[in-house]
Design goal:
This protein is α+β, with helices and mostly antiparallel strands. The protein has 28 helices and 20 strands.
Length: about 750
């Protein structure tokens, strides 16, 4: 065949030099440029006089592929060399061994893989596209071959006259079922959108042009609407910038642009919503691009989100948080859809300049943020994993090696933004709002749903704290928070309560010592601290107030130290108890019946074990002469029987039912849908038992633990209730804990 004319040769050389100028910022190592030039001259010789269907010189096709590979896909010099040489082995009969000798083993592997992919019969790929993609990937060793195929198809749709109609039909089939899904997974959204538009124009040109015409007819009206929308959100963002200034300096700058969604996207919405063009409610999208420090990106995005949703009602189910958890492709952006008026909705994308570059140019852009002047194909190591496992977030953003966000951003009902560590709970958030809110926190509504104080929050949650005057911090709250602020506030409250109770215990001890005619001084207190093995006087007073130290034991110890003087002050406790016990036994041959009117005897149900009618119980005579009723399996039973056997009396229930007895049960199981409703139905509706308190916590593995305080008539009713609860699907165990 005749070679290229001098005019064609000049055009080819100019195109080649223009390509080199375009890719030079990314491919500038002399040895790499030398290999590219070698491939160019090699092909110029092999393809001299070869033309495309359109009559265009074949070399122009190769040069353009090299430019697309670097500038639009993010590939490097190896891929430019392979772009020149692709198909030369079977088109020109050049052996791969010769190519390996001339251009190296890596280039040869890419070319061999490219040839394998070119031989595939893709005619029936539509029927089993997922399995086909697995096979597609299993044939190759180097992912550059797949990306070069994409580069080729991008060139083809841009220059349809260069390809025969028969080939173009097959190419569009591959584009639809193979290459568009791959581009989506890799985050090359700009190229994906282009291929989708070309595909629709090929498959459904009438509908494409119809939608295009309707867009053009309403373009001016939409432009005016978009400008009004942007003006209002800009005003809100400006106010937030002013409010969040530090030392007079703004935290970030921004720009806003808008676009009408692509024709294929609008057509997809028309089909999904089954409505005509005029009734598609979210045709327009705005994008807020933030310029800020790398470490402030997430916070600034959420600040902008808050500003926008404060003035426009968001469609909550349309919130997409891809900045906390990027897509598998590495795509990062915060998306929300807000209502502009009664019918019009705007999608708003919020992202940093870095995120925007990555969204436009794909994974290679990550590595440009390392400060390198040349592209790196390091990201290709993860391409196969992403394509074979689309659910994985496999691409590690390089900037996260510098700064890894461990923060989440939570909104108050008023739209104020609170920043908390990852893993924070409702209780953490309550203390972040205000100390009093934290101390009285009884749960929350998160995105409108009731949750307990231990519920773990996620980015973008809107939280309304529920408080109760009867609620106060407990020691176990320390296990329900992760922030130091909340932990310190809880510890401080518990310490203050301990001090108050210590003051009460101190007063109790002072009064008793006065009655016993014993001194209250440092020597006496130190003796008691040593005897009862506590760390200091505060602990001594606190344990006296909480009845962990019995004042009778205090008196017995001091009597042994100070002699009989103390005995003259009041009747000895053991003697008083024995007298009361003998009087009761004389009056009643049978054990004391709980519930009957007994002259001169009062009793109470012990709070340590909460006995209910039907429980096996015993009576314990207190210092005041009253009788405390305990279950025989009470945690304190063994100690009382060993130390104060003379104060134990036999008691029995008289058969009367009580509707105020209290029992607590613990439930453990798998958190299945509707389980809480079934539990409350059995308790409240089926058995008509009153629930005084209910707390449920679910772990990350899907198991829950619940504690329910019940008002129950007797032990028989409690046993029946527990049996019915155990029969519910998902419940693994039910036990009584007091």
């Amino acid at each position: 065949m005749a070679g290229y004319t001098s005019s064609e040769t000049t055009t080819i050389r100019q195109a080649y030099e223009a390509m080199l100028a375009d890719i030079e910022p990314f491919v500038n190592a002399p040895e790499h440029l030398a290999l590219i030039d070698k491939a160019y001259r090699y092909c110029l010789e092999k393809y001299d006089g070869k033309y495309l269907v359109s009559g265009k010189a074949y070399m122009l096709h190769l040069i353009e592929m090299g430019r697309i590979a670097v500038l639009e896909v993010g590939l490097g010099y190896i891929s430019v060399v392979a772009a020149f040489l692709h198909g030369i082995d079977y088109k020109e009969g050049v052996s791969l061994k010769e190519l390996e000798k001339e251009f190296g083993p890596t280039v040869a592997i890419v070319l061999a893989d490219f040839s394998e992919l070119s031989k595939l019969d893709t005619e029936k790929v539509a029927f089993n596209s997922d399995n086909f993609q697995v096979m597609f990937l299993s044939l190759i060793d180097d992912m550059r071959a797949v990306l070069l195929k994409i580069v080729h198809r991008v060139y083809d749709v841009r220059h349809p006259d260069d390809v025969s109609p028969e080939r173009m039909a097959r190419y569009f089939h591959e584009i639809k079922y193979i290459y568009i899904p791959i581009l989506h997974r890799l985050g090359l959204y700009k190229l994906k959108a282009e291929l989708e538009e070309k595909l629709m124009l090929y498959e459904n040109p009438e509908m494409f042009h119809e939608i295009k015409a309707k867009i053009a007819a309403t373009q001016e009206a939409r432009r005016q609407t978009a400008e009004k929308f942007i003006a209002k959100i800009s005003e809100a963002i400006d106010a937030e910038i002013e409010r969040t200034k530090k030392n007079g300096k703004p935290k970030f700058a921004y720009s806003v642009k808008w676009r009408l969604k692509s024709v294929p996207s609008i057509y997809a919405k028309m089909k999904a919503q089954n409505v005509p063009f005029e009734e598609v409610y979210d045709l327009m999208a705005a994008r807020v691009i933030i310029r800020c420090a790398l470490k402030d990106e997430q916070e600034c995005c959420w600040i902008v989100y808050s500003a926008i949703t404060n003035i426009y009602k968001p469609k909550e189910e349309r919130l997409r948080d891809w900045i906390t958890q990027p897509k598998a492709s590495g795509y990062e952006s915060l998306h929300t859809t807000v209502q502009y008026d009664d019918k019009l909705w705007f999608e708003v994308q919020i992202r940093s300049t870095r995120m925007d570059d990555i969204a436009e140019t794909g994974q290679a852009a990550h590595y440009l943020y390392k400060g390198e002047k040349t592209t790196s194909e390091e990201w290709l190591l993860n391409v196969r994993e992403v394509l074979e496992n689309p659910g994985l977030v496999s691409f590690e953003n390089s900037y996260r090696k510098i700064y890894k966000s461990d923060k989440i951003f939570i909104f108050t009902p008023e739209g104020d933004l609170k920043q908390l560590p990852v893993g924070s709970t409702v209780l953490d958030f309550a203390y972040e709002v205000h100390t009093h809110v934290g101390e009285t926190c009884n749960g929350a509504r998160v995105n409108g749903r009731m949750v307990p104080i231990r519920h773990e929050l996620t980015n973008g949650d809107k939280v309304e704290i529920i408080t109760s005057k009867k609620q106060s911090p407990r020691a176990d709250w320390l296990n329900a928070v992760v922030t130091e602020k909340a932990k310190n506030k809880i510890r401080r409250y518990l310490k203050e309560q301990e001090l108050k109770e210590s003051e009460l215990g101190k007063g109790m001890l002072q009064r008793r010592l006065k009655n016993w005619k014993l001194p209250f001084n440092e020597t006496v207190v130190d003796m008691l601290v040593k005897e009862f093995k506590v760390e200091n006087s505060l602990q001594l007073y606190h344990q006296i107030a909480t009845e962990k130290i019995d004042l009778a034991d205090v008196k017995r110890f001091l009597t042994s130290k100070f002699g009989v003087n103390a005995e003259k002050t009041e009747k000895a406790v053991p003697e008083l108890i024995e007298t009361g016990k003998k009087e009761l036994q004389a009056e009643m041959a049978e054990p004391l019946s709980i519930g009957e009117d007994i002259d001169n005897v009062t009793y109470k149900l012990a709070k340590c074990c909460n006995p209910i009618p039907g429980d096996r119980v015993f009576g314990f005579v207190t210092n005041e002469g009253t009788i405390s009723i305990h279950r025989t399996n009470c945690p304190n039973a063994k100690s009382m029987q060993q130390r104060y056997g003379y104060r134990i009396i036999n008691v029995k229930w008289n058969g009367l039912e009580s509707d105020v007895s209290q029992a607590t049960i613990r439930i453990y199981g798998r958190d299945v849908l509707g389980l809480l409703g079934k539990i409350t139905k059995v308790i409240s509706d089926d058995l008509e038992v009153n629930m005084k308190n209910i707390v449920f916590n679910t772990d990350k593995e899907g198991y829950f633990e619940g504690k329910i305080v019940l008002q129950i008539p007797d032990v028989a009713a409690l046993t029946l209730l527990m049996d019915k609860l155990k029969a519910i699907e998902g419940i693994l165990d039910v036990v009584r804990i007091d």
